Amino acid sequence: MANGQGAVSDDTRHSVSWITREYERIRKSALARNAGWMFGGQGLGLVLQAGYFVVLARLLSSREYGIYVGATALVTIASQYSALGFGVIFLRYVSPEPRRFSEFWGHILLATSFASILLVVGLYFAAPHLISRESARLVILVGIAECVCNNLAVCSGQVFQAFERLRYTAVLNLVTSFLRMTVAVVLLVTVHHISARQWTVAAVSVSIFAAVAAVGAVSKQFGRPLFRLRSFMKLLPEAFQFSVSGSTTSLYNDLDKTMLSHYGMNVQNAIYTVAYRFVDIATMPVRSVMAAASPRFFREGSKGVGRSLSFARTILKRTVVLGAVAAAAMWLISPIMPHLAGKSFAEAAPALRLLCFIPLFRSFHLAAGDALTGAGLQRYRLGSQITATVINFALNIWLIPSHGWHGAAWASLVTDGCLGCLNWLVLWIACRRAPATLVTGLEASVREY
Q1: Does pTM top 0.70 for this prediction?
Q2: Taking a C-beta distance cutoff of 8 angstroms, is the pair 155, 90 a contact?
Q3: Domain locations in the chain?
Q4: Per residue in 218-237, pLDDT tens?
């Protein structure tokens, strides 16, 4: 009996010792600390966005919400060109060489100044031919909010991300959501219902404030920009690749909403979009880990594509669990959707159940995709994304006219699943073609984290 008690006691001590060691390892881990900031910030952002979309669904009728979504989806696709990819270029070059901040911050502001104006003007003339007439009337205001203001806020967050100061990135990511949520709640309490146009005016006002605050935070922390046109033009072709990559991501995420608007299915667009917003929210934990790991992907990628592959495997072990938990959570909360968004959004519950596997699929394609980007193989990732976009477009053309939001949901599932397979296949092929750079493990890196 005594021996048994001694064995139990020893086992207990070993368990406590192991837990203590694991806690210390995680506490000292740069990746865990940065992911914690992003997860905490995005976790709070998750709550804010969930509340924001629920309040907005009640503030607008399903028809008005569909009108607003149609304009937002079109603008979001085009807004990926707002900074011409210089936000990612900043991460790529300033992460290993922080002294180059001023030059690359100048590139971001220069690109945004010219590209955003051209985009907003172009969208104004193109919108009547692509989306419903009601949605097209909102494009100018939504364009200012997304192409100019939101882009500046996102790029400001990437500046702090490059320096691995992700607490600031997390805060900047929360500002717009917090302000929009606050305004939406105030309007719901005071006026109860508003039109899509009235909400667009409120949203653009909030976005302007958030953009000014974000740019001011960067200037205060790191200093003034430098504008070097020759360097800007030299980097433009590479930066544009990242823009095209971002636009393809936005295409297969938002093309379905644009097409639902094009066919005049405003109510179905509202139902589908409410469900899809919860998909984006559920993916936040995965994205928080990927954001924290982004600078490390660039550093590992500079040592060879094999290092990127090994690091992607390490990250995937964490994100696949988060994706699976998110999928289960979406399935479980789907019955309460009509109670949250209102009776006019009753069909959002089956839409959410149908879309629930997307966060899991994204954990795969984001890990492999970031590995390709970090290794300087963005063109191969772009090829995968273009292929996925073509698949998504073909499926939407085929399914949406006859099946409405059900067709859009199936197209999204197939697209994200295919992209996960494509990215890992391309990454594996890239490693097979560069055997000299292939590293079978990242033991030292794993120990460091």
Answers
A1: no
A2: yes
A3: 34-448
A4: 888 888 888 888 888 988 88
